[in-house]
Specification:
The protein has six helices and no strands. By secondary structure, the protein is an all-alpha fold. Helix 1 packs parallel to helix 6, helix 2 packs across helix 6 and helix 3 packs antiparallel against helix 6. The longest helix is centred in the C-terminal third of the chain and has 33 residues. The termini are far apart.
């Protein structure tokens, strides 16, 4: 892996990790809304429904992205061998790319939720 690719992969991994670190805050902001919905008897409406559906969609997108990433690495196996390179399937690079691809949809949703819920909580307090 060239140093430019390594640096880019490192930046992407750092960005994903940073976004996922917002998850506890998203949970903390979302729980009061979900508790209010539960008390009113409106389960799976509003924030509760959003929480469930977006997690399901993010998981499905992540699984597909991971599979596509592995497929692309597998398709590059022989071209990499014939070019005299060590195949990414053998070096662990394919696994790293696959994990990053799987976490990217969740990372984007956590970041978007944090922004959205921050605005909602600011509107309620202000």
């Amino acid at each position: 892996m060239s140093s430019k690719r390594f640096a880019r992969a490192s930046r992407q991994s750092t960005a994903i990790a940073g976004s996922l670190m917002l998850a506890p805050m998203v949970v903390a902001m979302r729980l009061p809304m979900m508790a209010t919905e539960a008390r009113s008897g409106k389960m799976l409406k509003g924030e509760s429904l959003t929480a469930v559906t977006e997690k399901t969609a993010a998981i499905a997108e992540g699984v597909v992205a991971a599979q596509i990433s592995y497929f692309n690495s597998a398709m590059q196996f022989w071209p990499e061998v014939l070019a005299g390179k060590t195949p990414s399937m053998l070096t662990g690079v394919a696994a790293q790319r696959s994990v990053a691809a799987a976490l990217r949809p969740t990372s984007k949703r956590v970041k978007a939720n944090f922004r959205r819920l921050s605005v909602k909580s600011a509107d309620r307090s202000g």
